[in-house]
Amino acid sequence: DTEVTQTPKHLVMGMTNKKSLKCEQHMGHRAMYWYKQKAKKPPELMFVYSYEKLSINESVPSRFSPECPNSSLLNLHLHALQPEDSALYLCASSQSPGLELTEQFFGPGTRLTVL
Amino acid sequence: QQQVKQSPQSLIVQKGGISIINCAYENTAFDYFPWYQQFPGKGPALLIAIRPDVSEKKEGRFTISFNKSAKQFSLHIMDSQPGDSATYFCAASKRTGFQKLVFGTGTRLLVSP
User: Would you give the end-to-end CA distance of chain A in angstroms?
Assistant: First the structure.
């Protein structure tokens, strides 16, 4: 199984809502990533988890709250978002940091619209 | 120093032609250079990657050329097909550590039938 799955595929939320994005992989990868991608732009790194611990936070606003409950799951909790947060949110995973193999496997993304 | 510059922004190639996309980096600590292909509504998928100890890597119709002294690398797609129409991102990172990929700005490739 070389797949990263993300749910939901699409999400529309108001600025006062609380919602969560979910990412799952069963490749035994111990590094997981959240990226944000605006239209016609490259993905921008938001968070990196290594062995279920938050290793990198790229100065992301606190209205985005990541969580890694176990080695296969990664969540992104959303609260009080702004319309400019509308984007494609991508999850990725890779083998343990420190190993030579660096391929990051991306999921299909969640298309988020904030009204 | 963290930037990866990519050109062209968009490219139209006839079926059967060669598509060439170029990237340049600044940080000499980078030692892993992948290319990702992204179709609309999908996540990026790794196409091919190279390390700086080789000057060229070929996988099927896709070839990466790497020039370490110039800090440039390029993707060549031979015999381009309409199914290759997608956005291509070059990227760079260190091979170890947290593998922070620095992406280029992307090239939208359209292969006309």
Answer: 36
**What is the greatest pairwise CA distance in chain B?**
43
Size of interface A-B (CB pairs under 8 A): 63
Q: Among B5, B6, B98, B110, pick the best mutation site for testing chain A contact (most A Cβ within 10 A).
A: B98
Element (H, E) at B20: strand B19-25
- Structure tokens given for A12: 């529309």
- Burial class of residue A65 (count of CB atoms within 10 Å of its CB; 0-12, 13-18, 19+): middle
CB interface of A with B, residues 1-20, below 8 Å: 4
Spatial contact of B93 and B36, defined as CB atoms under 8 Å apart: no
Contact assignment for B100 to A56 by CB distance below 8 Å: yes
Cβ separation A41–B43 shorter than 8 A: no
Q: How far apart are CA B30 and CA B2, in angstroms?
A: 9
Please report which confidence band the pLDDT of residue A98 belongs to, taking 50, 70 and 90 as the band edges.
Answer: low
Average pLDDT, chain A: 92
Instruction: Compute the nearest-CA separation of B15 from chain A (Å).
Output: 24
Q: Which residues on neighbouring strands pair with residue A76, listed in sequence order?
A: A21, A66
Q: Encode chain B (113 residues) as per-residue pLDDT tens digits.
A: 678 999 999 999 999 999 999 999 999 989 999 999 999 989 999 999 998 889 999 999 999 999 999 999 999 999 999 999 999 999 999 877 677 899 999 999 999 99
From the CA atom positions of chain A, what is the Rg in Å?
13
